[in-house]
Every structure is written in C-alpha cells, then in structure tokens.
C-alpha cells in the first residue's frame, strides 16, 4: 500500500503543488479505504473491547459530552479501572445524536498504524489518526479549523462537508472511496443527512523551521542563564555594551553551528521515535531460534530502515529504535533490504552461513523481518 498515492493521487504532484497550499479531493476504489477502518471494525471496538477514555469521546451539536455520561468503573484483581467505556451508554448517546470519536486510533488499530507509519516515512512528519462515527441528521462539531494538516477519507455512509478557502465556500460530498486533504487552518464543518457516516482523519503535525532553529538556539540560550548585574539600570550604556558583546558571541555561535549535525539529530529523533509495528512478534520471538538457511522471511508490513554509517559502526534507524551493527556487514544489510522476501542463504554473497543466520535472527527480533508462517 502506498498511502500517499491512495489518499492524494500522484505523490510528486501533491508534494510539489498541493502540500500546505490548497484543498484536494481524490477518488479511489472504495474497498481500498473501507478495509482500513470500516463500520464493522468500529462496532467491534465499541462493543467487544474494553476501551478507556481518552481513546473514545462523544460530541454533540458542537460540544464534547462529559465522560461520566458514557463511562463506568470496574476492578481487576481488586484494583480500580477508571474511565472504562460503557458500550450501552455509548450506543444510547449515539442513537440520540452524538458523534463517537475514536482518538489516536493508530495506537490500537493495526491497519491505521501501518497507514500512519507509511505516511510518516513518505512525508517525514509525525502523523496521527482519529475516526468519527456520526448518526443520521447530526453534526458533531461546528465550523472550526485544525492546527495541523489533515487527510480525511470516508469508509461508511455519507457526510456533507462545508469547506472554506481563499476562493470561497465549497460543498464536498464525502462517500466511500473519497479522500480530502485540508491544509492547516482550513475552516470546515460536516453534517450527515439521511445516513450515518464514518470517516477517518489522519492529522499531519508538520515540522516547521522553528523546530530546527530551536535545536541550535536553545542550547545557546541555556548557557546564558547567569544573572544580570545588580543596580541593573544605573549604567544603561554599560548594560547595552555587554548585551552587544553577548549578541556578537551568540551570532558567531549560530553562524558556526553544525547544521548537518542538527539535521542528523532531528532525523534520529524522528526515525527512532515512532510507534512500533509488532503484530505477530511474539510468535517471531518463539520462532527466531529455529531460523536456518532455508527459513522464508519477509519484511514486516510498514517497517522502515534508514542506514546511517558512523565510522566502524552502522546505525539502522528502524522507526521506533536505533540498532547498531558492524559497518563491514553493510552490503549484507542492503541486500536484505532489497527483498520483500528472502532466505538467509540469499545473503551468502556477503556473509557466511552462520553470519547470515545471526543477522536475520537479529532483524526478526528487532521487528524488521518476520517469519513466513
């Protein structure tokens, strides 16, 4: 699955001409989106899982409902479990016109976790996912704008959107197979008519230049925490002269900052701080000791790996962690990454049999590969 292609059409055109500039409506085969989080999956989470707030909230006529309206208390092994979603109360509120909001869905719904990780890899910006289930003839939120970019895609029913931009007000009918991109700050509101609606929003928390500049400036400011002199304004000219000296020193430090190092630090924080994709990893841990030359392995869906050489070591940025291996095995790692499926023996041009098994077992334990079962 190429998330950016599905949600926006041509990724190059999106990045070059649309990103952050204007709204975009895109149509795809409905089944491509419905399978990510559809009405059956929403029903499953509400009625068959022990969701807790803030995983779920309710909104009606522009207001968020108090949690006490739809939660209950329980105990496990004598310890209190608070904020537990009461499915009967949620369904009653839904029947009475409340929108059900699933928050941070990428944290507990695997298909959206994979979609979000794929988008993050393509865009280089952190993403998150919510879903909104609205009954017929209802509106969860009034006209508002978000502090981040969003992709919206419909997976069930229909919803009529009112979207404002520099060219005026647009009416967009969202039905399964339709996705829409809204840049940060785009005013919008949505309402159902004759049918219920389920749509997913993927929020893109775009990095801004301030984020990189702060990595340079903040340490310099932290080093300037010594106090100003007493009798502060007895000699304003002396104070101004001292400030000019510090500004000159500050400017020199900014000018000489290691820009490449700042970018590398930012990349490392992003490329090792994502949510892990570990579906089936328990079985992989159990199966890893039995991997031999003929074991069929494949790249875990949604997995990422950036290679960053560091002298005699090679850093692998795996999305949720950094793994370090000897730099001499880089050709074997690149060969491994070049295949969707492989067997340890496929690495024998670069490693002996024992080394290939050690590497592949390690990559299974780290979640980059999985055993084909």
Automatic annotation (TrEMBL):
Q: Which cofactor does it need?
A: Fe(2+)
**Gene3D superfamilies (alphabetical):** Cupin (2.60.120.650)
Q: Which UniProt keywords apply?
A: Iron, Metal-binding
Q: Name one GO molecular function term.
A: histone H3K4 demethylase activity
Under InterPro entries, the record lists:
JmjC_dom, NO66-like
Q: Where does the source fall among the domains of life? A: Bacteria
Q: Pinpoint the JmjC domain residues.
A: 125-211
Span-the-membrane segments of this chain are none
Record keyword Lipoprotein present = no
Matching entries from Pfam families are given as: JmjC_2
Protein name from the UniProt record? JmjC domain-containing protein
């Amino acid at each position: 699955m190429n998330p950016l292609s599905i949600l926006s059409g041509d990724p190059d055109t999106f990045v070059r001409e649309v990103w952050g500039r204007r709204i975009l409506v895109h149509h795809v085969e409905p089944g491509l989106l419905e399978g990510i989080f559809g009405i059956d999956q929403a029903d499953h989470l509400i009625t068959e899982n022990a969701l807790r707030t803030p995983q779920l909230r309710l909104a009606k006529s522009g207001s968020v409902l108090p949690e006490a309206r739809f939660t209950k208390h329980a105990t496990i092994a004598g310890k209190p479990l608070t904020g537990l979603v009461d499915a009967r109360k949620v369904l009653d509120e839904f029947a009475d016109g409340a929108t059900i909001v699933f928050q941070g869905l990428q944290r507990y719904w695997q298909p959206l976790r994979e979609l979000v990780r794929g988008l993050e890899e393509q865009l280089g910006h952190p993403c998150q996912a919510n879903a909104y289930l609205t009954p017929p003839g209802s509106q969860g939120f009034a006209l508002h704008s978000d502090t981040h970019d969003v992709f919206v895609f419909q997976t069930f029913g229909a919803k009529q959107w009112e979207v404002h931009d520099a060219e005026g007000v647009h009416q967009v009918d969202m039905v399964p197979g339709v996705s829409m991109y809204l840049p940060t700050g785009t005013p919008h509101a949505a309402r159902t008519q004759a049918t219920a609606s389920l749509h997913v929003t993927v929020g893109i928390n775009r990095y801004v230049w301030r984020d990189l500049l702060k990595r340079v400036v903040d340490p310099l400011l932290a080093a300037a925490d010594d106090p100003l002199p007493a009798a502060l304004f007895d000699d304003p000219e002396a104070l101004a002269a001292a400030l000019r000296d510090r500004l000159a020193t500050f400017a020199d430090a900014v000018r000489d900052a290691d820009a490449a190092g700042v970018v590398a630090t930012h990349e490392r924080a992003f490329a090792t701080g994502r949510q892990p994709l570990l579906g089936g990893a328990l079985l992989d841990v159990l199966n890893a000791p039995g991997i031999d030359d003929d074991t069929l392995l494949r790249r875990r869906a949604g997995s990422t790996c950036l290679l960053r050489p560091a002298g005699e070591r090679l850093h692998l940025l795996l999305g949720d962690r950094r793994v370090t291996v000897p730099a001499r095995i880089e050709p074997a790692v690149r060969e491994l990454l070049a295949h969707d499926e492989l067997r340890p023996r496929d690495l024998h041009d670069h490693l002996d049999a024992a080394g290939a098994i050690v590497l592949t077992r390690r990559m299974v334990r780290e979640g980059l590969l999985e055993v084909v079962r």
